Structure to design on (519 residues):
């Protein structure tokens, strides 16, 4: 697999806007599994960890993920390559920064990715654009069954699939959606959403995982309860109740903003567009902030000369590892700021 | 790099960057202060807190702290410190305490009602067999019985290769 090539393209799943794409950026479903009869990773000897990673690598590249699957040995990868995989949501930051034999296998379209030896022996995920949780679950279920032809997973009839951390045990299923909620944030109603999410036993996080709220009005909502509900129930609660409620709330907040504060909203969006087109130095955080305004402007028809796909592309390709990989050298933050601004102007057709 | 929470001096785990008119403002908050500001809310207490609370509630703290898994060797106290279990058998070894913990983390539930592996019964048998063999293997190595250890290692390898039958 060619990292430089990867750094120039959007994954397939980021290219297909759908019915809910004005609010839902992506859907993700994850299953955790451990091999039966083996200790969890923290109690494995170095040799056992190596054995596990070799065995799983063989299964994952031997057809379980279909033709042409890639495998990256994270222990051998250079930090920039690992960082690139984090930016593409193919591995967690914890996996990139971990130690010992570990890796990731993924399909060429990047919809399916399986981390080997992260917190559990296996962490598989399926990603999709828009709200497509049923489709993701169906796909991951197939993969789980395919892997079962070759592997036996730690399971107990009382507690279900056994995981290193008891908060994941049972279905070991984590369902999440990435939502763009600028109007709720702007009108201060986001706190209500966060509070009701807590009442519904959900976790809400910023863009890049654990305890960090990235800017850009992006919120990841995921289930916390993995035990005592079936997989189908977890998915359908999410799909039928939780997410539609938040989507409606954000949409009506947008409509209200448009009605009551149209000039202020237009000003914000158009200024963001002007900065994007003319900046000569720009940080990745500022890009995410500006893209959030443009995304909002696009969904409300304030602007129309840009596509969601272009915005997705800009938010991915301007991140530090992508930028450096694309230009083929490591750069200081200020050099990056300049290169980033140039890349944006190029993609927007400005000189 | 570690940051202190700007409001209460606990360790900050929530890091925010806001950009207002091109001015970058960085903020560092602990989980609690961030939640108070409505920034990030965890539905769940961190696992270490849940364990801590259970220990405090329980009059049988002494009993818990003596628990140890005889397969991987992890003690309940080590689990309490790290938040991660050592092996599948720990769910049985610590069952008594874990049930309370699971109920706290999973809306009162402690029983699985979801999917079951296609080969569940077989898997359970292999799992138990492997755990038993690994225990024997460690013992054999301990008493320097390398012949026995080699034989055990072969059986472990055979079973863990997914071939679920004993070599004849
Ligand atoms: Zn604080
Ligand atoms: Zn154990």
């Amino acid at each position: 697999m060619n990292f430089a090539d990867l750094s120039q393209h959007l994954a397939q799943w980021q290219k297909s806007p759908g019915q809910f794409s004005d609010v839902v950026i992506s859907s993700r479903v994850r299953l955790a599994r451990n091999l039966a009869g083996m200790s969890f990773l923290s109690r494995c000897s170095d040799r056992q960890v190596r054995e596990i990673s070799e065995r799983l690598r063989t299964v994952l590249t031997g057809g379980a993920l279909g033709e042409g699957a890639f495998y990256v040995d994270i222990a051998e990868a250079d930090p920039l390559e690992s960082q690139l995989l984090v930016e593409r949501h193919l591995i967690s930051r914890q996996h990139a920064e971990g130690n010992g034999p570990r890796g990731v296998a993924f399909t060429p379209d990047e919809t399916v990715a399986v981390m080997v030896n992260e917190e559990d022996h296996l962490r598989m995920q399926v990603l999709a654009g828009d709200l497509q949780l049923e489709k993701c679950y169906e796909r991951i279920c197939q993969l789980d069954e395919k892997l079962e032809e070759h592997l036996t997973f730690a399971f107990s009839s009382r507690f279900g699939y056994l995981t290193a951390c008891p908060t994941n045990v049972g279905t070991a299923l984590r369902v999440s959606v990435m939502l763009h909620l600028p109007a709720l944030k702007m009108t201060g109603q986001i706190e209500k959403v966060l509070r009701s999410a807590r009442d519904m036993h959900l976790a809400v996080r910023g863009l890049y995982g654990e305890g960090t709220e990235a800017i850009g009005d992006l919120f990841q909502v995921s289930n916390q309860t993995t035990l005592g509900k079936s997989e189908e129930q977890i998915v359908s609660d999410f799909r039928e109740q939780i997410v539609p409620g938040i989507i409606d709330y954000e949409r009506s907040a947008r409509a209200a903003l448009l009605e009551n504060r149209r000039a202020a909203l237009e000003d914000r969006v158009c200024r963001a567009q002007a900065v994007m087109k003319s900046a000569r130095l720009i940080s990745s955080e500022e890009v995410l902030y500006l893209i959030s305004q443009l995304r909002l402007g696009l969904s409300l028809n304030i602007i129309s000369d840009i596509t969601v796909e272009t915005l997705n592309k800009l938010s991915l390709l301007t991140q530090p590892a992508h930028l450096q990989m694309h230009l083929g050298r490591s750069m200081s933050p200020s050099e990056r700021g300049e290169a980033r601004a140039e890349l944006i102007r190029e993609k927007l057709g400005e000189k | 790099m570690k940051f202190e929470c700007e409001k209460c001096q606990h360790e900050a785990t929530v890091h925010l960057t806001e950009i207002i008119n091109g001015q970058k403002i960085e903020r560092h908050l602990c989980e609690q202060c961030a939640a108070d500001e409505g920034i990030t809310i965890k539905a769940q207490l961190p696992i270490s807190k849940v364990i801590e609370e259970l220990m405090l509630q329980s009059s049988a703290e002494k009993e818990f702290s003596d628990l140890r898994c005889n397969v991987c060797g992890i003690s309940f106290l080590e689990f309490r410190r790290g938040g991660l279990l050592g092996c599948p058998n720990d769910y049985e070894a610590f069952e008594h305490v874990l049930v309370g913990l699971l109920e706290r983390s999973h809306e009162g539930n402690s029983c699985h009602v979801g999917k079951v592996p296609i080969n569940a019964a077989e898997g359970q048998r292999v799992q138990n067999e492997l755990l038993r063999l690994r225990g024997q293997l460690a013992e054999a190595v301990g008493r320097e019985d390398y012949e026995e250890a080699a034989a055990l290692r072969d059986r472990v390898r055979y079973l863990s290769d997914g071939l679920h039958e004993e070599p004849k």
Notes: The radius of gyration of chain A is 21 Å.
